[in-house]
Amino acid sequence: MININTRLKDIFWDAIKASYPELENPPLAVTPSQQPKFGDYQCNSVMSMTQMLKTSQQKVNPRDVASKIVQNIPKNEYVEKVEIAGPGFINVLLKKDFVSNQLKNLLLNGVQPPAVGEKNKPQIGRA
């Protein structure tokens, strides 16, 4: 099963880096929405990024920062729509087909243990 929070973080990281490549270690905050009326997830990185940009003598406002990030969100199979709310919050609505397929997979297969590959082998019996 796909970890959508991780996928969304990857998507927003790419958009943030494309929008502001000059920022070193920009903040990345993508969380489930606390209120369904605002969407499924939200990116709350904009206010911190705006402060970083102002510190580097750039005159920006949070909505412009959010707008630039939204413009650089790559095409993907997860996000249906993004909206800028308030001073710069980015609300994310997931594609219904994606959510439906994830639920169907969960109902048919149950919760599966994570795949164990060379990169993340369990360290059983190792000192």
Notes on the protein architecture:
The chain is α+β, with helices and mostly antiparallel strands and 127 residues long. The protein contains 4 helices and 4 strands. β3 and β4 (89-94) form a beta hairpin. The mean pLDDT is 88.
State the main characteristics.
127 residues; alpha+beta
Radius of gyration: 18 Å
Sheet with most strands: strand arrangement = 1-2-4-3
Low-confidence parts: none
The helix content, as a percent range, equals 25-40%
The computed structural class is alpha+beta
The beta-strand count equals 4
Secondary-structure blueprint of this entry?
Blueprint: H1 4-19, E1 30-32, E2 41-43, H2 46-55, H3 62-71, E3 79-85, E4 89-94, H4 96-109
Antiparallel strand pairs: 1-2, 2-4, 3-4
Helix pairs in contact: 1-3, 2-3
Question: How would you summarize this macromolecular structure in one to three sentences?
Answer:
The protein is α+β, with helices and mostly antiparallel strands and 127 residues long. Helices cover 39% and strands 15% of the residues.
